[in-house]
Structure formats: structure tokens, C-alpha cells
């Protein structure tokens, strides 16, 4: 793996997929964003473009720079278009069979040397890799959310991940400006083992009237130094995603602290998922995931 631009495929136009596509485009990678549904793909591309439009408004880059970066990203609903990819990052729905099937299909499309990265945060990398005829090239790469704003990526090898794939993955992630930590192929890796129970405790504190959403967010940012409060973060992640991740970790670890509080179920049932629906803990006029 060299520092020259790679061709990177990103599977999934949702929160993580679009966030990872932003990361790749900003790093100068030729990026193909794939989703099976045209409407999901368009939403993902809108999120990518919107991120850079907001960056221009905030004075973080010029309009010309933003247009150049946006040109690095194209979208497709045809998996076959990923044939030239050097790296494919899977960020689809957190379902083992869906992820295995994606890699099985890609086996017939891309080069045997193409790296397969899975952005799973709750499923076994080994289990996902079993969908490929070449499980040695599959590596877990969990981008901390929101991916464009957080530098950390957790790297977890599956049981059959080969050393060349691990090393090439580390080199690639560092070449796009990410900081890596190596962890084991265990539910939640490092970050979500800590993050999910903490987010649950913040939600419970809100339910119990310990503070308002504003005061809890302000306390976390002001005293703990977090770049955003728990409710601001959850609105970007999506309450449906938090519910899925927390429930899967509870099912595997059977520790009550992972089980989502009742407020989570109520918000999901009401469709108050966060930024993407215009309302979560806060209300939003701009439903782009990284809008102003």
C-alpha cells in the first residue's frame, strides 16, 4: 500500500457509509459510494456534498477546494462498478448474513489483492470474513462516529486475517490521516464497550430528571472535554442505530448496562431518530447528517 491515491469502494449510503466516503474524498482517494437503493445513494451523496458546503460556509476551505474534493466521489447502485477498487469498506446494515453476502459477491468482481474492510462494531470479524473465499484479506476497521470528525479507527483482525492485509490496512488508514488502535475481535471492540453503557447512562439521567439535554451536553463538553455532548452525538448516530448496537451487545454480553433505556424505544417508535429525520433530542431544519 502506497501513499498514492487508491480507488476505494464504500458499501452503504447511511450515516457511516457517507461519513467514511467524506473521509476518503477529503484524503484524495477516488471514492465509489454504493447502495442498493437509489434513494439511499442520493441521500448519501447529498450528505457528502453537504459536509463540504458547510465547510466552505465556515471558512474551513474555499469553494474551489470543496468542488475538487467533491469530484473525488461518484455513486453507483451497481456492485460491478467496484471492480477497480483497491480497498472496499463495508458499512451496510449490521446483519451478519448481509455482510457475508456482500463480500461473497465482491469476490467475483474485484481483484484477489483488494482489501476488504468491515466497519462492524458488534459482529464478529471472523464471521463476516467467512463470507469471502479469501478471508485472509478481511480486516475489521471501526471508524469512530462521526467518521469525518473523529480521527480514531479501531483495527481488529479476524481469525484468518493474514499479516499482509493487517499491515496494508494500518498503512492505508495512516495515509488518509487516521489514528489506529489494534483491538481483538470481540463484541463492541474497545470504544463501544465503553461508549454504549455511558450513552445509556446519560439517557437514563435525562429520563430521571438529573438535568436537561442542554445541561448534560454542556457538562460533558465543559468538564470532560468531549467535542460534543452525548445527545448531540446520538442525534448524528441515530437512535435506531443506537438501539440496534446496544441490543446486539446486550444479547452477546448479557450485561444490563448495555440494554437500551425505555426512552430509546419510545423515540424510535415515534420516528424521532435524530438529524436524519429532523428531530431527535433536538430539532433540525437541516437534516443532512453533518449540516450546520
What does the model show?
- The model has no long low-confidence stretch (mean pLDDT 95).
- The two termini are 36 Å apart.
- The longest helix is centred in the first third of the chain and has 20 residues, at 38-57.
- By secondary structure, the chain is of the alpha/beta class.
- α10 (239-253) runs antiparallel to α11 (262-270).
- It has helices spanning 15-26, 38-57, 63-70, 96-107, 125-129, 163-175, 191-207, 213-224, 230-237, 239-253, 262-270, and strands at 7-11, 30-34, 73-76, 87-90, 115-118, 138-143, 152-157, 179-183.
- It has two domains: 7-183, NAD(P)-binding Rossmann-like Domain (Rossmann fold); 193-277, N-(1-d-carboxylethyl)-l-norvaline Dehydrogenase, domain 2.
What count of domains describes the coordinates? 2
Q: What would CATH call the homologous superfamily of the largest domain?
A: NAD(P)-binding Rossmann-like Domain
Give the termini distance in whole angstroms.
36 Å
Helix content: 40-55%
SSE string, helices as H and strands as E: EHEHHEEHEHEEHEHHHHH
CATH class of the largest domain: Alpha Beta
Shape: globular
Give Rg in angstroms. 19 Å
The name of the CATH architecture of the largest domain is 3-Layer(aba) Sandwich
Total of helices: 11
Strand content range: 5-15%
The unreliable regions are none
